[in-house]
From TrEMBL:
It comes from Thermodesulfobium narugense DSM 14796. GO terms for molecular function: GTP binding; GTP cyclohydrolase I activity; zinc ion binding. SUPFAM superfamilies: Tetrahydrobiopterin biosynthesis enzymes-like. This is GTP cyclohydrolase 1. It comes from the Bacteria. GO terms for cellular component: cytoplasm. The lineage of its organism: Bacteria, Pseudomonadati, Thermodesulfobiota, Thermodesulfobiia, Thermodesulfobiales.
Length: 188
């Protein structure tokens, strides 16, 4: 990541909006934002499949569901955050399971780049399918988009929900219903 280019760009933005980038509260802002961008966009050059290479074999083919994985991402249309939680379930094939933190790490990596919620949801499902080769994957993502809360329509508190179903979760209505009832806490 080119820290110097980011600093110059932020300096120029401050000037363009009519601020004095040299005043007390803003003089270190370009450097702070450059460091922040390195952190919040750290998923750009990271391979989420690499975290799924540590697997275990258990005698199970029962659903594994990790609920309420917190994440934040940056909307690629406005470069404003969207913040939410992801629910990821998979059905192990041949007893192949992975540490629970690895699923959360996949969500983390994929969310740390300019993103769309719809794409993020699909990328999580695709990564789990490719990395674990399970019988199925279900991903539900719920988020508030600050581009809708702070600007434009100005509707704070809204939730956008997206889902991606693969394999058995897509093919079987009973499996799909089970995972959705576990995620949302009611029969679907």
């Amino acid at each position: 990541m080119d820290q110097e280019k980011i600093k110059r760009a932020i300096y120029d933005i401050l000037v363009a909006i009519g601020e004095d980038p040299n005043r007390e509260g803003l003089k270190d802002t370009p450097e702070r934002i450059a460091r922040m961008y390195e952190e919040i966009f750290s998923g750009i050059n990271e391979d989420p499949l690499s975290v799924l290479n540590v697997e275990y074999h258990e005698n199970t083919d029962e659903m594994v569901l990790i609920k309420d994985i917190p994440f934040y991402s940056i909307c690629e249309h406005h470069l404003i955050p969207f913040i939410g939680r992801a629910h990821v379930a998979y059905l192990p094939k041949d007893g192949r399971v992975v540490g629970l933190s690895k699923i959360a790490r996949v969500v983390d990596i994929l969310s740390k780049k300019p993103q769309l919620q719809e794409r993020l949801t699909s990328e999580i499902a695709r990564t789990i399918m490719k990395g674990l080769n399970p019988l199925g994957v279900a991903v539900v993502v719920e988020a508030e988009h600050l581009c809708m809360s702070m600007r434009g329509i100005k509707k704070p508190g809204h939730t956008t929900v997206t889902s991606a179903l693969r394999g058995a979760f897509k093919a079987s209505s009973s499996t799909r219903s089970e995972v959705l009832s576990l995620i949302f806490g009611r029969l679907i």
